[in-house]
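Input chain follows. Return structure tokens only.
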Amino acid sequence: MDFSYPAEVERFRDELRSWLSENLTEELIAARRPSGRSDAVFEKLRAWNATMADAGWAAVSWPCEYGGRGATVLEQLVYTEETTRARAPLPLNVIGMNNIAPAIMQYGTESQKTTLLPRMMRADDIWCQGMSEPEAGSDLAALRTKAVRDGDHFVVTGQKIWTSLGHQANWCQLYVRTDPDAPKHKGISCLIVDMSLPGIEARPLVTLNGDTDFAEVFFHDVRVPADALLGPLNGGWRVATTTLSHERAGAARLYAELQVRLEELVADFAEVDSGDALEDPVILRHLGDISVRIKYLEVLCQRAISATLHGGDPLGSASLAKTVWGEIGQDLAALAFDVLGTRGVHGRWADYRLSSRALTIAGGTSQINKNITAQRVLGLPRS
């Protein structure tokens, strides 16, 4: 792994640091945690997304023609590290920016690209992704929401669940079954759906920590224009698994985010009970263990990024890194809550203890990621 930065990348870093220091406020930093996010905070973050977009910092990895900077892999790495360490809020459309936008760039019409992408970047429109169903979570090919062609429309009927921001979204990248007789992977299509269409019902889901970041979404004979098709008919699996990604150094956020959390935890330990926790050898041992594991995670992430730089296969290392990230995050959350409980800044560690249960599920379950590691890294057979 060679991460020596050319002069132009260091200039990119300096420009970003300077801009963040001038524009990122303590109020915005405090708003970055999703817990208990009010409508007023949501709108503050929407305005922040627009500020970043207007300054050219909202989607540096996107091509210039879509409002990005066409950043190189090393520039993306620098961007991810610097924004995470500065504690800048993630985009409200983080799933849209990372997952949906690349698919629109590859498969969308010119009208879809020029109309939808700028508004997504600014968070003028909020996006959700309709994949998971009550009986088709990680197994996308088992989805049953159907779309039947009727003249110039598809008539959509079915249900999605665990849809991030589904009750706040203006648009949905929706995966539906358009050919029930085809093999599971080959009868799926992707639609770009206006969430204001008649027949769509979104119900917020309350998670363990009281947040309502997810929703279940019902489609009751929703008439979706046929030109909302993204990619070829019955080619939705290809859209969902497209290898096109302008975000090639996002793995850096895994270790940078955990490092920030560890620093915050140590700061809280120093404040509570006159810093007694930092005199306890057992707690210090746990902190040291987590710190070393975060460093190992950094190496794993850099291996994935290095593979991208040198034409290798980053998927195996990235999948292993995601698994390790989830496990470290849960252990850090457990340590924080065991020592601080509901104390600390705004009781954030109690909230993190609850929300951390999702770390080994979101973005690909640990079981699936371990299968990828077994096959792509260790070369083990599928059965």
